[in-house]
């Protein structure tokens, strides 16, 4: 993938970086729910990002047993490099679709994400 070749990131690692940028901090459980990835994939991706210094792990203030993840300054910088490229890629990918179809696609994707989130809560994935 382009993320791996150019930035040395797997797709799961990029997904975690993108969510952590939006959320500011999250537990691995939060990340698993939000990315609809299994706990093992989130754990591996998080460990790799921590090793590379892109993510920092801290103790959750409200639950001393839980660990929170947040982007380090290096992680924020990397996000700033990748995000514009991802937005441009998305624009190029959708360029052949009329705006009304893009709107429908986005609504459908939100519905799928909501259904997947509900299923993961129900099935404890």
Helical percentage = 55-70%
Unreliable segments of 5+ consecutive residues: none
Biggest β-sheet: strands ordered side by side in the sheet: 1-3-2
Please state the oligomeric state of the protein chains shown: single chain
Instruction: Describe the global form.
Output: globular
Termini Cα gap: 26 Å
- Report mean pLDDT, rounded to a whole number: 88
Radius of gyration: 16 Å
Largest sheet: 3 strands, antiparallel
Please tally the β strands and state the result: 3
Order of secondary-structure elements: HHEHHEEHH
Describe it:
This protein is mainly alpha-helical. Helices cover 70% and strands 10% of the residues. The chain contains 6 helices and 3 strands. It has helices at 2-7, 11-23, 28-35, 39-51, 73-94, 99-123; strands spanning 26-27, 55-59, 67-71. The protein has a 3-stranded antiparallel β-sheet. α3 (28-35) crosses α4. The longest helix is centred in the C-terminal third of the chain and has 25 residues, at 99-123. The two termini are 26 Å apart. The mean pLDDT is 88.
